[in-house]
Amino acid sequence: MSKIIDTFIAPPCHDQIEILYQDESLVLINKPTGLLSLSGKNPQNLDSVHHRLVQQFPGCTLIHRLDFGTSGLMVIARNKAINAALCQQFSQRTVTKVYSALLCGHLDHNEGVIDAAIAKDPALFPLMSICAIHGKPARSGYHVIERFYHKLEDGRSLPLTRVQLTPETGRTHQLRIHCQQLGHPILGCDLYGGRLLPGTEQTPRLMLHASELHFVHPISQEPIKAHNASPF
Fold first, then answer.
1. Matching InterPro entries, A to Z (predicted)?
2. How crowded is residue 18: how many other Cβ atoms within 10 Å of its Cβ?
């Protein structure tokens, strides 16, 4: 097995984490784009969601992660028992996650499901790949909100589709690689073709935002339906 060497150095993130809700058990946050979820092995990648929050909430742990470029909702456990209870909900797939995204081009269909297994390939790191033989099952639903043209400074028009994405599984880079598989990569996605179309090269961020998170509060057993509007 080839050894994976991560050479990525995250640029400084000056945006703050927005705390949307907190109690004795958990914290709901809005993660800014350009911030790692967990600190990397490289000391230059110390800044992260966990690094910042553990100063305010000692002993807190991440239940799930968002990619560096993805913004939006994350739930953080404040102790081990809550971590175990929430992890169980995620692993049993009783948590609903909804994302907002801008895709390159205009999609033909208004909705559909992408069913394509995803595998890690150390030779391609950090890219994941679609692989029916070695990949883990992965399913994502999509629903078109609107098709429109974004006017560029040079007068050209960039066709874009605003979609709602609902991953049924939680593989690394799942939504990004599934949208590429669909033929419409997420705008601003440097790994999976979202900066290849003319006019997309200077996109300021990955246009992917975790906009909804539905789960059951481990203590009160109340259903929590968190919403956080997309910034784009």
1. PsdUridine_synth_cat_dom_sf, PsdUridine_synth_RluA-like_CS, PsdUridine_synth_RsuA/RluA, RluA_PseudoU_synthase
2. 12
